[in-house]
Amino acid sequence: MLLTLEGLDGSGKTTAWEALRPAYPEATFTREPTDSWYGDAVYRSIAKEDADPLAELFLYIADHADHLSRVIRPALADGDLVISDRYTDSRYAYQAAMLADADLARPLEYIRGVHGAFTREPDATIYLDVDPETAAARAGATDKYERTAFLAEVQSNYERLIDAEPERFVRVDAGRSPEAVIDAVEDAVARLVDAHRDGDRD
Ligand SMILES: Nc1ncnc2c1ncn2[C@@H]1O[C@H](COP(=O)(O)OP(=O)(O)O)[C@@H](O)[C@H]1O
Ligand SMILES: Cc1cn([C@H]2C[C@H](O)[C@@H](COP(=O)(O)OP(=O)(O)O)O2)c(=O)[nH]c1=O
């Protein structure tokens, strides 16, 4: 089963992902951008204010392709629970916002289309919902993505993704204390894992 955690920078994904580890010692915990050299290339591009957004998109996609073949597909083939801190929805939400002013029709649909040919859809996605001001403040506004106006665009793209596939998403109010957010994420993961197991028995 593939579970993903999504949300704005500073929504608390990494905090929740770390908190889940002890409860699922057998699971594969992974993330995007990855810690491979493809992921390093992505982080180099994030640090460049003037990086070409289309070139940057394809760095993320290269990292995702490697992540799928090296980590995700083998773990799923072994029957593992896989929990990824960010995954494809991050690309649909962030890179569609980055490409909003590019000479590209319907960027979100374009990015979904490129992935559609080869990716593995998540079974469920937990969306940590926080307002862009709080997100930017928590994240520290250290790079080009962590600005309120940009994060507002990203948030509206996430909302489009949720509207399109409401059954895949579990929304968690991430504006609360870290303890409350972690509890809500732990409950959601436990319910999703149980439901998946029950589904397998049917
Ligand atoms: N619910 C919360 N309330 C306040 N601060 C939080 C909360 N969750 C995380 N933080 C803090 O916000 C920052 C970003 O959290 P992090 O878990 O790395 O978010 P993300 O992975 O979504 O960017 C960290 O300093 C973290 O300690
Ligand atoms: C995976 C991914 C990340 N990002 C961005 C979001 C983050 O600002 C940045 C680094 O991701 P990450 O290290 O997960 O940052 P954070 O913990 O602050 O959320 O990369 C994209 O724009 N597209 C993507 O597909």
TrEMBL record:
GO BP terms in the entry: dTDP biosynthetic process; dTTP biosynthetic process; dUDP biosynthetic process
Keywords: ATP-binding, Kinase, Nucleotide biosynthesis, Nucleotide-binding, Transferase
SUPFAM superfamilies per record: P-loop containing nucleoside triphosphate hydrolases (SSF52540)
Domain of life, source organism: Archaea
Pfam families: Thymidylate_kin
Domain Thymidylate kinase-like per the UniProt entry, residue ranges: 5-183
GO cellular component: cytoplasm
GO molecular function, one term: ATP binding
Keyword Phosphoprotein found: no
Catalytic activities: dTMP + ATP = dTDP + ADP
Enzyme Commission code(s) on record: 2.7.4.9
Gene3D superfamilies (UniProt xref): P-loop containing nucleotide triphosphate hydrolases
Binding positions for ATP per the UniProt entry: G7, L8, D9, G10, S11, G12, K13, T14
Family (UniProt): Belongs to the thymidylate kinase family.
Record PANTHER family: THYMIDYLATE KINASE, UMP-CMP KINASE 2, MITOCHONDRIAL
Protein name (Swiss-Prot/TrEMBL): Probable thymidylate kinase
Organism per entry: Halobaculum gomorrense
